[in-house]
Write a structure and sequence with these properties.
- By secondary structure, this protein is an all-alpha fold.
- It has 3 helices and no strands.
- It has 2 domains: 66 residues, no CATH class; 32 residues.
- 73% of the residues lie in helices and 0% in strands.
- It is elongated and about 80 Å long.
């Protein structure tokens, strides 16, 4: 079975089957068979309603599964990203002198921060 197919089944299971199943189990605990059947006949979209009802419990289960094996409870979903190039008319340009001044200012602030952190570290140890 291709890896992509397994991943898609994993996502469907974690996002739909798990919350619906947990909602059915919770209803069964509360009111036995009548509550479970009521979940399927009392709504136009019974699966969606059960999915919403069990979503918090499913989230908790997924988080616990992720603690055991990262990605087990919240599977990685492949996404496609594309970038639309923007107009380059908004470019900011600096002269060499301006750029040098900016870099010197950054370097000075970094040195000040380093001295502060060094002093702070020495005083705590």
């Amino acid at each position: 079975m291709p890896q992509k197919s397994i991943s898609s089944y994993h996502v469907v299971f974690m996002e739909t089957v798990l919350p619906v199943g947990l909602a059915i189990v919770n209803r069964a605990k509360k009111g036995l068979l009548g509550k479970v059947i009521d979940g399927f006949v009392s709504s136009d979209l019974p699966i969606q309603k059960l999915k919403e009802e069990g979503s918090e419990d499913a989230k908790s289960v997924r988080m616990k599964l992720d603690q055991i094996i990262p990605g087990l409870g919240n599977p990685v979903v492949e996404v496609k990203v594309s970038v639309n190039p923007k107009s380059v008319n908004n470019e900011v340009s600096f002269s060499d002198t301006e750029l040098s001044n900016i870099l010197n200012r950054i370097e000075s602030r970094m040195n000040s921060l380093k001295m502060y952190l060094d002093d702070s570290f020495k005083s705590t140890h």
